[in-house]
């Protein structure tokens, strides 16, 4: 494996793998391994576990905005960033999502398309129940959808795949596109 992609969780890994597959890419054959670290603060552990870059090995990753500072500090400690600055993450191959990857996917698809995915997944009733709860009534649909995706064990992972399958290839969120471009150019890109 010449490239290790560090992502926060299993839903991120599912999204990256699904998009690569949709693009006709075989990441295993390309020497790319995706490691779900169990949260952004664990990416520092991943940097240590997978060793420094160089000698034909590259580290890259996808992180949520709230964890970007922690990741920058971890990369700095590992000698991969000259200074622990969030704005230095992208040139170092680590790409920052808005709130999280689900936020990026909801914005890229748009609320109506995401609700269609929820309907096809057979969860419209659960969605309506979720929206009627007092804690969620006053939120906008995009915020509710992001929260809904994380309310049941395995749902985020499932939707990491379903949302990317529904995504028009011309609307791939920038952090995801940049990540895949870093591990090899996107077809036609």
From TrEMBL:
A GO MF annotation of the entry reads: endonuclease activity
Q: A Pfam family name for this chain?
A: OLD-like_TOPRIM
Q: Which domain of life is it from?
A: Bacteria
For this UniProt record, the keywords arranged alphabetically read as follows:
Endonuclease, Hydrolase, Nuclease
OLD protein-like TOPRIM domain segment(s): 3-44
- According to UniProt, the name of this protein is ATP-dependent endonuclease
Biological source species: Desertihabitans brevis
């Amino acid at each position: 494996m010449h490239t290790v992609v560090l992502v926060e969780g299993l839903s991120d890994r599912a999204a990256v793998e699904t998009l690569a597959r949709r693009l006709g890419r075989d990441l295993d054959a390309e020497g790319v391994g995706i490691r779900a670290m169990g949260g952004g603060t664990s990416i520092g552990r991943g940097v240590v576990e997978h060793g420094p870059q160089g000698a034909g090995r590259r580290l890259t990753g996808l992180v949520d905005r709230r964890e970007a500072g922690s990741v920058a500090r971890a990369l700095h400690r590992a000698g991969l960033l000259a200074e622990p600055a969030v704005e230095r993450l992208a040139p170092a191959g680590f790409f920052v999502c808005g709130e999280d990857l689900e936020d990026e996917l909801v914005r890229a698809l748009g609320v109506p398309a995401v609700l269609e995915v929820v309907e096809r997944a057979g969860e419209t009733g659960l969605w309506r129940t979720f929206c009627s709860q007092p804690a969620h009534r006053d939120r906008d649909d995009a915020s509710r959808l992001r929260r809904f995706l994380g309310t049941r064990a395995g749902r985020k992972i499932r939707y990491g795949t379903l949302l990317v399958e529904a995504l028009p290839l011309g609307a791939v969120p920038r952090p995801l596109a940049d990540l895949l471009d870093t591990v090899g150019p996107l077809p036609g890109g």
